[in-house]
Structures are given as structure tokens and as C-alpha cells.
Batch of 4 targets.
Target 1
Amino acid sequence: PETGCLSIVVLGASGDLAKKKTFPALFHLYRQGFLPPDEVHIFGYARSKISDDDLRNRIQSYLVNDKGSSTEQLDDVSNFLQLIQYLSGSYDSEDGFRLLDKEISEHESSKISAEGSSRRLFYLALPPSVYPSVCKMIKTCCMNKSNLGGWTRIIVEKPFGRDLQSAEQLSTQIGELFDEPQIYRIDHYLGKELVQNMLVLRFANRFFLPLWNRDNIDNVQIVFREDFGTEGRGGYFDQYGIIRDIIQNHLLQVLCLVTMEKPISLKPEHIRDEKVKVLESVLPIRDDEVVLGQYEGYREDPTVPDHSNTPTFATIILRINNERWEGVPFILKAGKALNSRKAEIRVQLKDVPGDIFKCKKQGRNEFVIRLQPSEAIYMKLTVKQPGLEMSTVQSELDLSYKQRYQGVTIPEAYERLILDTIKGDQQHFVRRDELKASWEIFTPLLHKIDDGEFKSIPYKPGSRGPAEADELLERAGYVQTHGY
Ligand code: BG6
């Protein structure tokens, strides 16, 4: 393992993402011994003029577990907070970044022994509008010193642009400053346990090999639902909408893992090569295979314009033009303020030919991977109804993680991905060409929406979304199974 000083800089340290996700993820890594205090120092950097203690106080409540914390955990929290130092500065002037470099160097000189190196990780918990200037400042002022060895890596968050052109422009600007192996484009869905499990399920199980194609699979749904609205994020959300917020990144990444061919190996480049191939095989989205919605009350948020048409719900069908998937609809569905919070993949198989049991109406075989909450993998299948009658019933083969892996804590996505960055493993990060291919799929539709060619259909908060989306699902061939 690499030794020496690891400096983690959280830019945008006083913001929401840093507070809710980045610092808690760092804390969990610290508790598990991945951030040894004799090597690691954490810097928070933002514009607000606050003190070290102000930042520590802001973060603290997100580190303490709701159910009441043990003394041991409280000690860990306070020890962890002591590793954090705050610096205030702007995102486009050298002064702040020179000071940051000076502070990092001081820590390095006290911690780096003869064989140790300088490792610098910059987490940009910031809006993408400031990425170019922040990257330039890091490059100018804060790179690891070459005589010490080590590395400098940056983690960037979505949204990477608003469409193909702006994303490419951003990629070019960042690409002029950093090489691809230094850039970690984070999509936190790639850090979720059951998303990571997808390749194992598909490629380590004989069961699925012959089934996973257009001959057997009728349709696939990848669904994200939230039972709350934009909650104070209306200003941000209204500029992006549900397609850019969830579908173009999170759900599309899941789609890649469901549909890609088997990579040559688990090397990040091999996996990402296959993802790009499948993305490039996606056909243009058809207008009649899109339903958009907006929940009633969304525009009451004072930061949302009165006439906003921004979708908070979308169902979109993607079709993949290759030998494995031609003709299979991939239904991507995401919505805010719906009736439940759930993310899942539903793979529905075709009907069994020659239905001697007359059980077709009970439903089809379905394979479901529930990403959250309560991670589970289950198969819906038809069995004989127990008893004297020769009748059938739909039942489930169920692998519920809570029951099967009692006592195992499933790591948070951010925790895993930050650790991967420290290790230099880009397998679960989005490569530049992958990002480009994903914007290529959605940009024509997004432009039409921006030009007012699609209207968002109003739906009631707490509902399933617009009825038109269920109709689209039916048209795509989805058959409601018993109990769903
Ligand atoms: C974020 C979106 O990327 O993902 C949010 O910006 C959304 O709008 C969130 O709420 C959902 O993440 P998770 O992990 O709770 O499904």
C-alpha cells in the first residue's frame, strides 16, 4: 500500500453535498481505519468566512447516528473532526489556493518519511460552473510536488453540463489541465451495493447466460421513485429537471450494466469499453415513447418560476440496436413526489409458449433487483398452489439482504467511491467518452423539452405519476404481475 501523507480537500465544504454525503463518507472510512490519522489530513475549503469549529459543528450532526451513539462513536466523531481544518477563499483567485498549498505542504513535511509520497485528493462538491476555474487553480497552485512522488486526483460531481455541447466543453476544459487517470467523475449509483452486484449476477451465474437476450426477455424497467419533492432544491432542480438529475446519469449507468457484453476482464478500461459500446448502440428516442410529468405544487417553491415546464417525472423508452437487444424496450422511469421511495430493476420474461396450465393471466416470470430501500433480489415464478387442486400461483424466490446478511453493514455509495479514488481504481467512475455517449442519447430530447415541444403533465403528489406513463408501459408490452 502507498504510504506518506494523504491530503483530502473538500471544495464547497460548507455546502449541502459536503455536509450530507462527503464528510459522513470520510468519517465512515476513518472509523474503519482507511484514513489513518498519522497520514491523513482533511481540508475544507469554501468562500464562507467561518472558523474550523464552525465547520466542525455543521458537520457533526451528520456524523452522529440517529439512534443514539455510543461513547466510542462520539470519541471517534471528535477525533475525526480534529483532522479537519477549514480555509476560506474564492474559487477563481490564486491567493486562497496558494494558502491551501502552503498548508498542505506543511502537513506533508511533518508526515512524509523517506519512502512516503504526497497524495492529494480534491473533491469538488461544487456547481460545475466553477469547475474550470477551480481546476485551473489546483493545477497552478496545488499539485503534489514531483520530488516527493505520489499523485493528485480530482473528484467531480454531476451535472457535468446541460447537454452534449456544454458537457464536451467542460470535458475539454478539464482535460487540458488533467489527464483522464486523474479525473474521477462520480455517479454515486455506481457505488451502490446492488448496482455493483449486477456484473456478478450476470456473468458469474449460469442461470442467466442463456436467458439474457431478446429471445427470452420481453421488457426491462429501471425505476427510480422518491416520495418527496424537490425540498428546498427547486432553484437547482428547475434548471436541470428529472432527466438530467436522475435518468441521463444514474439510470443510464444501471442500464449499461444490465445490457453490456461481458468485459474481457474487470480492468476499468475493459468494463468501460463495453459500456460505451452499448451506449453507442442506443437508437434515437421516439417522441411517442416519452411521457413527462410535473407534480402539483412544484411551482409553489419561490425559487421555481411560475410557468416552469420542468419535468419532475419522466418515463422514456430506450431501444438498443444490437444482436442481443433489438426489439426489447428499456423503460427508464424516474419521479419525485410519488407514492413510494424505491429504486429497482425489473426484467420481465416473455410468456411461456403453450400455456397448458392456463396460468398466463397470473403473470410472467420476472427478475427484480431492488437497489433500495431494503436491498433484495427476487424472482417471480409460477408454482403449484399447495393443496389438493392442480392449480397454479405466482410466488417468489427471494434473497433479501437484511435476512440473508444479518449484521453486515452495506457501505454507503460515496464511502466506497472515495476509497476507490484513493486506491486509484476507476472501474466505478464515468469515462469521458462514456459521458459523451450518454449526452448524445438525451440531448435531442432535452432540447425539444427546452423549446417547449413537450408538456409536463400535472400529477398529484403521492400518486404513481401521470396515467399516460402507465399506458406507455402497457404499450411497451409490460404485463402487470400479481402483487405488484
Ligand atoms: C441525486 C439527485 O443525484 O440523487 C437527487 O440529484 C436525488 O435529486 C438523489 O434525490 C437520489 O439518490 P439516492 O442515493 O437517495 O437514490
Target 2
Amino acid sequence: MAAPPNLIAAVDEARQWDRLMRMAQLGAIPGDGVNRPCLSPLDREARRLLIGWARELGLTVATDGLANLFLRHEGTDPDAAPVLTGSHMDSQPNGGRFDGIWGVLAGLEAVQAIREAGIATRRPIEVVAWTNEEGGRFAPGCMGSMAWSGFRPADSWDSVTDAAGTTFRAALEEHLAAEADLPRRPFGTPRPHAYVEAHIEQGPRLEAGGLDIGIVTGIQGSRWFTVEIHGRTDHAGTTPLGQRKDAVQDMLRAIAALNALTHDPADVLRFTVGRVEVFPNASNTVANLARFSIDLRHPDKDVLLKRGDAIPGVIQAALRGCTATVTETFHALPVTFRPEVPDAVERAAAAQGLKSLRMPSGAFHDAQFLVPLCPSGMIFVPCRDGVSHHPSEYSSPEQLARGTRVLAAALVELAGA
Ligand code: HGY
Ligand code: MN
Ligand code: MN
Ligand code: MN
């Protein structure tokens, strides 16, 4: 279905880019990067900026018990299930200016264009900013969308702590108190009619193929584990090697064994150790504790379950004198999007003469947890060299505007003009 021509023209590339660059100042780090942890003062400052823009448009604002933020554009039928769009505002610690936040601002820009084009949709449209998608400050990611969708109880992560020892619950309560002026909704309400998330691809395929739009067909599965290797602190100069319970050495043995388990010439099973902590972390002391993260990904549910379930046994067998605990902190199975949203995205891209590709997502997204609730889908735009989770992450104003025009048209189709 072709979008009304005035809608496409109403999407303002410069206005969207200016908002993105203004947001990028909140948590700016060298190299054009951003470090904006969830539930931080910076996060609250960014949300206030967004709320201000939304209220200028006449949108109403609400939140919930996990601080998910909703910006509502009314339809002609206020009781109709809304079409939901959005993404996340928190960033990686060494992140970029576009991951997550573009999806939120694309939703705002699309709604503004719909209003300026004078298009009255039957369904309301809501723009959401999900809490803690990245899991950078508090692991795991996607806490906001997992709690909102009922995938996990909202108190599942109360005792998770950040590097400073602050619990998620304490940070959340502080945040909710600071935003006590916002009306709060029960989780999962109102149940959406459909969900569309716009996001940079975070991979190389669209750019390499000279393509404008990724029509996302699904998201591979992810499992996160935290491994603790417990040994004994000893003097580095006097303790014979044979008597040591060296947590670092056993961590290295465990990771080497896991590499053998997850070696995958097809580069499909992805295994990453991204975070390592050592205690007491002193150069002349044998470490008594080594803690490391495991991020395991695969598009096939059975492989993800089989390889992930094997991790504890492989680690135990590799140890020489230490003990280990393995805790799974994130478990998101692969999802395939039902045709409704990908098809609407494809129609919108085709009507605008854009080159598109149906493709799965290697990155996880909040959309994963909307799948059981409603037809869901995502729109990707290219990013330079496929780089993300790094300050040099970049998509051009033109590329992002194309994505927002497709989003606007898909929202109008799904919301029923
Ligand atoms: O880790 C991910 O896949 C997402 O980018 N947070
Ligand atoms: Mn993201
Ligand atoms: Mn990310
Ligand atoms: Mn995401």
C-alpha cells in the first residue's frame, strides 16, 4: 500500500538528525561515542529531553514499574489496540550514537510526520523506550521488555548489582521516584495490535549489498552465563605451582575448553567472553576468584540448548584445583516474525522505491519478547562497515530518514488510516 505522498515528505531528515545529535551529547565519550547507562542521571536527562519533545507534539506520556516509557499519539478510536514502535535509550559502556536511540527517535519522527501530514489513524500509535536493553550496567539486557511482556517476573533482577555495587532494584526505585510525576501503567497494557522496531543493522550486509532497508524476519537465540572460578589467594613468589588453586589459570583452561566446544567453521555458533574480573587483581598475588561472562548465540534452538547446556560440564572438567559456579542470566530462544509486519515493511519499502532484503537479526532486540503478544517486526538501516557497540558506529542522515519513512508508512498501514 503506497503511503500518502505528503507523509513521506513530512518526515524531516534534518529534524531527526538534530534530535539524534542532541541526544548524543548526553553521555558523549571521545570518538563520537556515547556511554549512557540505564537508570542513571544521564538516562533521566535523556528521557526528560524526549518527554519534552513528545509533549510539544501533543503526545501523552506514561511509564510503568520497570520505567519503560510510553509516548502516545491518539487514534480516532481510543479504545483500539495501539500499534507500538520504539527501541531503547540506554547504550553500551563504549557505545555509539545510534544503537537503540534511533529507533525511539524514528518513532517520534514518524508520529510527528503522521500528525503534520494530517493523517488520522484509527488505532493509537505509541512510541516506547524499553528499560535496559543492553545489559551494560545491569545484566542481562531486555529487562524492561521481558517484564512488560510477562516473559520474566518484574522482580527477577532486584539483587543484580552494577560495578559500583548498586542493586538494580535500588537504581530502579531511585529512578521511579525521580519520575513520580509520570502516570504509571500496569505491565502489558494496553496490549498492542502490532510492534515495529527500527534499528541500525549492526552488521555489514546492507551496506555491502548496496541496500537501503533490512526487512527483519526473526532474531537468533541468545544465552548469557556468569562463571565464577573459586581458588585460593597465595603469594606469587613463594607458593609452589603444584600447591596453587589459581583462579586465573583455571579460567584460561575453562575458556580454552569452551572454545573447543564452540569451534564452528561456519561461524554460526557465536561464543563471546566479553567481561572478565579478577580478585584481588594484584600482580604479585595468585587470584582466588575469576568471574567471566559468556554470550552464546545461534539461530537454531536445539543447537543453542545443546551447546549451552554442555557449558557447566566442560568447565568443571577443565579445572585443576579450583571450583566453579555457572549461572545462566539470560535465555532468549530464536524467534521468527509472523508475516504481517515484515510484509507491511516490504510494501512500504517497495512503494518508496527502496532496495530491501529479508534478513534475520544477529543482535537480540526487545522485539524478541513482543512476538508472543502480537505481530512484530523490525526495520534495519545500513551502518558504516557494520560496526556497532563502538563509538565509530554511524548511519547517515539520509539512511536514517529512509528508515523512518518506511516506518511511518508501515505504522499508517498497521494503524489503519
Ligand atoms: O547484544 C545485543 O545483541 C544487543 O545489541 N544489545
Ligand atoms: Mn540495540
Ligand atoms: Mn546494542
Ligand atoms: Mn535492540
Target 3
Amino acid sequence: MSAHFPPGFLWGTATSAHQIEGAVREDGRTPSIWDTFSHTPGKTEGGDHADVATDHYHRRTEDVQLIADLGVNAYRFSVSWSRVQPTGRGPAVQRGLDFYRLLVDELLERGVRPMLTLYHWDLPQELENAGGWTSRETSVRFAEYAGIVAEALGDRVELWTTLNEPWCSAFLGYGSGVHAPGRTEPVAALRAAHHLNLAHGLGTQALRAALPARAQVSLSLNPSVVRPRTRSPQDLDAARRIDALANRVFSDPVLKGSYPQDLFEDTARLTDWSFVEPGDLAAINQPLDSLGINYYTPAVVSDGSDAESPRSHAHGASESSPWPGSEQVAFHQPPGEQTEMGWSIDPSGLHDLLMRYTKEAPGMPLMITENGAAYPDKQGDDGVVQDVERIRYLHGHLSAVHRAIADGADVRGYFLWSLMDNFEWAYGYGKRFGIVHVDYPSQTRTPKASAHWYGELARTGILPKAPTC
Ligand code: PNW
């Protein structure tokens, strides 16, 4: 059966500044924590870094044309903080802002709605030197930066996102250390999570103050679909612990204005959470216009207190844990097909998430701000990558979205990760999420089969039958 999506649905692709821009030393930009991290030996696959990436900073106009030619009506990108505010404080660099103004104008001219994310993991290194997200000063700095960007682009950008996936920034950045800044301190990770929440709250206030009333403000989370391996009380408790650290540590303060009591208990031997100051929760609990959800794969967990259980953390192999206070939980690879990331394919997880937030935040419009899959290149004789696995992945997940809408979820848009192959963080350039292939030596962009498939969907709003190939 073919499925119709609601009129006005946003069909987009997504990228982030650090993963595509390159030009890391141009026009006054200073290093971010990801520049430092990727240039530290042993931190990224093959020592890959994003000095050039997909050279988008110099190919902006060509890339906007590429987006428009796909047939999509929206594009999600992020702003590089250290391009706009090189020291993370004080006056903005006009040339940095100009790049994004031109990008937005070119998108609008071609009928593509821009969705701007203020922070997709690239903290100015100067702010990390002052404590980074473990310091509450960084939340205040973020609000100032949000105000600057809003003043500059508020007349033309309507869709605003404060943070992308604060879980990754806090727990992969300061807990397991597989992301920048590469710190492995459990308490630092919890402090970072709170200061990211506070940054979201103060940033939202700064956006509201500077933006016209029609602007929409949102936050993109990457909630985990946590499945207990069995229904035993021990495994159910493991799932509850991971749900607290992956999901409720962000969604509760943002949506309800409180931290979960069980999270305090689970982490009591590490911290008394005295870094949460009076007034913080009210500041974090700002009304939002939509909630962004990024989804790739579910997690299956069990109680791992016995020595035999796998301690491999589903979120990147490392010695350190991204789960402060719940290090004993074991993660299991679900059976069935996987993408090249080793992430199992399970579209029902996306349906579950959309229904969960429909229940937890009644009336809240939802936006899928990321979903997609990495697959190795299989170029045909014509140079086009025949990525039928990716089409199948997308088809399955979009069917799940359609089903959630039928079940009452107010889903307003879908942003495919990613527009083009790019710098996949610690995995470097080896993992390709794009629907457009990038030949890095020549920087040639070639739409894959999935780009044509997705463009057709975006133009018609009708999800075709499952691909049979
Ligand atoms: C997201 N995990 O990253 C990011 O928002 C993108 O920048 C990234 O390219 C994309 O997904 C694909 O990885 C994640 O370990 C990285 O749970 C790691 C995890 C989740 C999301």
C-alpha cells in the first residue's frame, strides 16, 4: 500500500557544520574541540580530521543547488560557534555570520526552508580550556551566542534548534571520551549534561527575546529505545537505569522542570548534584514549539553484574563507560540485519519513540531531525551508487513514521541524515551516511539511487510500496 503524508510535511536532509564545512582556519574561525580532538593521535579512525571535510564552505552555492535539485523542501544545518564568536565570548565576526546569511538566502530563493541548529558539538576550544561543559559559565556563553545568531538571522530563519543530541556531548564527550573533548570523568559527564540543559534553557530565552513571534524553537534529542533483554526484575531495572541516563536526564527537566528521582539515587555515590542551582530547572523548562528526535537503532540491555556479561557499550568501544553509576549494565547486539555502523535495523523503535513523546508531551509537534544509515559504496558503471539497502532502511523507517501519524503522533517533518557523505566523527570518512556520494580527492558530488528515490517521495508526499530488490 502506498502511504500519503500530511500536506505541508517538511522533507529535508541534514548536515552539521564540522562534518562538512572544512575551511577551519579561514575568516577568523578558531579551533573547536573537534579540531583539537581529531588532531590528537589515536582519537579518530586513520587520524582523519575535518580540515577540508566536504569543502562546503567554498562550495556553498553548488551544494544549495544540489539540495534544491533533489526536490526536498527543507534543509537542516548547524552554525560553527567558533566561526561566529572565535573566543566563545564577545563580539561576532561579520564574515562568519555572512556565510550563514548567504546560505539561508540561497536556500530561500530556491524554496527550501532552513532549519538552523546552534550547537552540533563544536565547542570553541577556548571555552573548553575554561572548563567546557563542566562549567556553568559555558551555558551563559551559549545564550549570548544564541542571541547574536538570532539578531543576525532572525529575519529569515524560522526554524531554530538550540542543541543537537546533548547526550553525545555530555556522555561521549566527558564520560566514555570517544567524542571531543575526550574526557573520561563520570561526574564531569553529569555536570556537562546539566549545563547543556541549562544552555538550552538560557539559549531558548535569548532566542525568544531576539526572534519574531513566528519563529519556532526546538531541541534535538537522540532518545534511546531501551529494551530489556528479559522481563526479569534485574533486566527491567537495567533498562530503567539506562532510560534515566539516556533519555529522562534531558527530557524531564526540559518538558517537566524536574530531574528524575531515580537518577539521583542511581548516581548518589558519585555526586549530590549540587551543581543544580536554585532557579535552574525553571530556566530549563521553557515552552518549545516542537521536539526534534534523532533515531538510528534501539538498545537491548540486561543486568551485567555477573562477570560473564558483555560490557561492550553499544555507543562506541572504549574502556570508559558513558553510563555514570550504571557501568554494570550490559549491552547486547539484537539479532537481524545491521548497517555498516553495526547498528541493528529496527523501524519499530522509531514508532515507539514517536508514541512515547506523544504521550509524555501531549500536543507537542514532533520533528524527526535525523534518521539514516551508513553503507559502503557500490558504484555502478555509470558512477552512481546503487544503495538499495539504504532505500530499504529509509522505506522501513518512513513506514513507521506514517504508522505513528496514523496512531496520533503530530509529526511535522523528516530530515534524512545525511545530505552527503561527510566526516563521521571518530569514524572519520570511512562511514558514509550520504544520499549524495562524495569523491573526496575531487570533491565531486554524485546523487546515489537513494537521492532519486527520496526526491520523488519529497515531491509527491507519497511513500511508494516497499522496494522489492
Ligand atoms: C548522530 N551513539 O550521531 C549525529 O547527530 C550526527 O552528527 C552523526 O553523523 C549521526 O548521528 C550518525 O552517527 C550519533 O553512539 C553518534 O549513540 C553516536 C551515537 C548517536 C548519534
Target 4
Amino acid sequence: MSYETILVEQRDAVTLITLNRPQALNALNSQVLKDLTQAFAAYDADPSQRCAVLTGSGEKAFAAGADIKEMVDKDAADFFLEDFFSGWQSGVVGTRKPWIAAVAGFALGGGCELAMMADFIIAADTAKFGQPEIKLGVAPGMGGSQRLTRAVGKAKAMEMCLTGRMMDATEAERASLVSRVVPAADLVEEALKAAALIASMPPMAAMVNKEMVNLAFETGLAQSIQIERRLFQILAATEDKKEGMTAFVEKRPGVWKGR
Ligand code: HXC
């Protein structure tokens, strides 16, 4: 399948998705959302694919934000009636299988918000994260004010949203916005390596682990600990649980059935 604004390739069990509007610093317009929605749905539906990596084309940007040129003439009623940005939740955040954002260069506004939709972010040493929407007279609209605050805490999130200040890769790692920083030249290979490792795990367990960690952001502690226990008990009924534990006892690698 070919897309207008992204490139998609499969490397064994890993899907690599590349934002491909380098002339606009990969700004996120409606077509990008449409393409990503289809690509993530195809990834989720393909049993041969077990992890995905999303990255930007060009060295300069992961994505420099929602497409300002697409938004400049819209008024409040347009945004409301289209429920603008709601598609990101269903089309991207709703992905059930794990995926990693590999960020080099600018991840600004919607670009930062898109990276934060990933299960985790690996950053190049060139990465710069920011929520500069205030300079345009607006505010984050794709979950950024909430996800950034949960990731880095109130002080840094508030400063970034109120001043538009960018955070470099070192600060982003220190603040737990990204899981680690790698040299820019190695970014995609490092992300693919991490994805291959995830892809080698029992796939249902990967999906359940993802759901469990996300629960921490969506539910109260007592309730999420109970849901964690129930999900653990469901996983215990899979053939891969039996295989995983038997393989450990027999000192051999597991062979996964995916159920
Ligand atoms: C549309 C964009 C864009 C964007 C860059 N471009 N960002 N187009 N939407 N968000 C385009 C530029 O217009 C230009 O194309 C080309 O990409 C290269 O950008 P330059 O500005 O020439 O590059 P440079 O001088 O290196 O500056 C890089 C930059 C700057 C600092 C990243 O481009 C910038 O500030 N971009 C906007 C960042 C931003 O404000 N993001 C948040 C958007 S709002 P042309 O053809 O013109 O030369 C958002 C959520 C909004 O994300 C929610 C509200 C409801």
C-alpha cells in the first residue's frame, strides 16, 4: 500500500513508518492523519507485525507541528464542527500493539504531541521538544498539555507551554520525556533494534503490558492494580505463558504462538 505523506516498510516483524513531508518539516495535516490512521490500522491487523517505529524524514524535524497553513483560515466553529484533532485519539493512540517514536530534530506542537502518543520515545542527540502553540495564540490540542505534564511534571510542562521554550535531548532524558538518547546517525537503527526485541516477545503479553502501563495514566491506583491483576490472570491462560515458563525451566528459548 502506498501513501501520500508517509512511507511504510516492513523489516521482518517490525513496521517502520516515516513521516514524509520534509519540505514542510513533516507538519501534520489532515492527509498525514488519514495516512497514519490507515497505516496503524494495517499494522494492528497484521499478525506478522509485532512492533512499529514512527520517525521523521530529513534530519531537521520529526514534525514541526500541526500544519499551520491548514489551520490559519479555520474559525472556532470549523474546529468544533470537525471535532478537529479528535482523529488522533482513535487513529493513532488507539493502536493496540506497541510502537516507538524515534525523534530527531524538531518535535514541536503537534509533533511533540504525536511523539508522546508513542509507547516510548527514543531521541537523537539533535532532538528538540516544545509546545510553542501559545505563540500562535492557541494551546496544545492533541493531548500535549496532559501528556507532557504527566511525563515531566508541572514545573517544566508549565514553563514550556507558557514560554514556548524548547527542551533539548539531554534535558528531555533527564526529565523522563524520552527513554534514552542516541547519536543522530544511529537513531533509526537503535529504534529498530528495540522494536525487534519487543517483536521477539510473546505478542499478547506485549499488548497487555502496554495496556497495563497506560492504565497508570488513566485510572486511580487501587482500580488499576486490580485491573493489572486481572490482565495478568488472563495472560496466564495463554499458550505462550505455558511455553514461556516451560522454556525457562527447560533452559531453552520460547517459541511463541501469539495466543
Ligand atoms: C506548516 C510549517 C510548519 C507548520 C514549518 N513549516 N513548520 N508549515 N505548519 N507547523 C514549513 C515552513 O512554512 C517552511 O515552508 C518550511 O516548513 C521550513 O520551515 P522554516 O520555518 O523555513 O525553517 P526554520 O527557519 O529552520 O525554522 C524551523 C522552525 C519553524 C523553528 C521549526 O519552522 C517553526 O517555528 N515552525 C512552527 C512551529 C510551531 O509553531 N509548531 C506548532 C504548530 S501548532 P515554506 O514553504 O513556507 O518555506 C500545533 C498545534 C496547534 O502544532 C493546536 C491548536 C488548536
